[in-house]
Amino acid sequence: MSRLAAAVRLELTLQVRQKFLHAAVFSGLIWLAVLLPMPAHLRTVAEPYVLLGDTAIIGFFFIAGTVFFDKQDRTLSAIVATPLRFGEYLTAKLTPLAGISLAVAVVVAAVDRAGYHPIPLLAGVLLATLVMLLVGFTTSLPFASISDWFLTAVIPLSVMALPMLHYSGIWPTPLCYLIPTQGPLLLFGAAFDQLHLAPWQIGYALAYPTLCIAGLCWAGRKLFAHYIIERS
Asked: Is residue 161 within 8 Å of 84, Cβ to Cβ?
């Protein structure tokens, strides 16, 4: 078994033991409790907001929780001394949570019985989840405890939620196109026939979040080297 496969398997085992899988299931049930009482014509309107909120919760908070568990158990100090590379460590962190987010989104959309197009739905969920996972990962590295991080985390979380104001028409500013969650939200709108995207919007919705994901991976590597490796 390769280092990456072993790391992913161990991370999945730890996340199940730490009850993150249970929390994801509970999150899905909460969203269903919100959606199912709504009339059918309102569910498709609410689904893009629900999906972005769900990816934010699972992506942003869950990965920060795993990082602080690693710090508390001093796992990170041990990882630095192993042959495991940063890219493998980060991939192992991202893979189970991205899979959980995709599964919850598909189940919520299927149980809700709102008609949707699967390709933009899955693309939007994957991109939004990876963006939020990496934002949660990079912002958690400088802090020693989750209580210290939580107060500061409100700022990036609020910024990532701003495209909801653009999507709803409350704040229709092109500045929201600078925020990487704008693209996935457009894909959610297309998945539930709320928006008909122009070709440039489709290209933007796929390319810009991908570029931001690459930038966040680079930032995560630098912060990991500074706050984890150097301090270890």
From this structure: no
